[in-house]
Design goal:
The complex is a heterodimer. By secondary structure, chain A is mostly beta strands. Chain A has no helices and eleven strands. Classes of the chains: A mainly beta, B mainly beta.
Chain lengths: ~110, ~110
């Protein structure tokens, strides 16, 4: 059974701190890994990673994938209160018909 | 990306009744998906809705409980039938333009069953 594990499950930091969120996976026929930000109900797409070692960046957020060690990290620098959310990691995998498997998420709380 | 709307955004329903959730996309998409997110849990795929064919359900989900329609390439509905309090969840639709590409999510429907 495909598995995606995120750590930590929750995290509280002060504004301006840098955080690293972790995602490890064990899946059949890995295709890509996605990061989402979920603030209320709808997950908002952040990054899609398919190649090892290539960092994706968007403003203060960045992510990298290690396909050999089967994990990805999401970095947020100079955190702001607006970064408070649940961050979800999901992996596309499967033979034939690909399916997204989600981790349980990391709940990030940024306090002033 | 895609602009996706869902109706209703939230509802409170009585046990034993049914609710139909609508998902509308601003452009034609190949794949549409329905997910459930129970309180404190991550997203679980209910089914894949393909236009012109029966929906494909994941293990633990059946058509009698969650009938799905996909009449065209921009619209789908999910019905939660004979509801019980255990069905209280957020229900999300998502779309892919091509299979294996990024999935974009609708705003979700928060369902509470009393």
């Amino acid at each position: 059974e495909d598995k995606v594990v995120q750590s930590p499950l929750s995290l509280v930091v002060h504004e301006g701190d840098t955080v690293t969120l972790n995602c490890s996976y064990e899946v059949t026929n890995f295709r890509s890994l996605l990061w989402y930000k979920q603030e209320k109900k709808a997950p908002t797409f952040l990054f899609m990673l398919t190649s090892s070692g290539i960092e994706k960046k968007s403003g203060r957020l960045s992510s990298i994938l290690d396909k050999k060690e089967l994990f990805s990290i999401l970095n947020i620098t100079a955190t702001q209160t607006g970064d408070s959310a649940v961050y979800l990691c999901a992996v596309y995998s499967g033979a034939g018909s690909y399916q997204l498997t989600f981790g349980k998420g990391t709940k990030l709380s940024v306090i002033p | 990306s895609a602009v996706i709307s869902q109706k209703p955004s939230r509802d409170i329903c009585q046990r034993g009744t049914s609710l139909t959730i609508q998902c509308q996309v601003d452009s034609q998409v190949t794949m549409m998906f329905w997910y459930r997110q129970q309180p404190g849990q991550s997203l679980t795929l209910i089914a894949t809705a393909n236009q012109g064919s029966e929906a494909t359900y994941e293990s633990g989900f059946v058509i009698d409980k969650f009938p799905i329609s996909r009449p065209n390439l921009t619209f789908s509905t999910l019905t939660v039938s004979n509801m019980s309090p255990e069905d209280s969840s957020i229900y999300l639709c998502s779309v892919e333009r091509t299979h294996g590409d990024t999935q974009y999510f609708g705003p979700g429907t928060r369902l509470t069953v009393l």
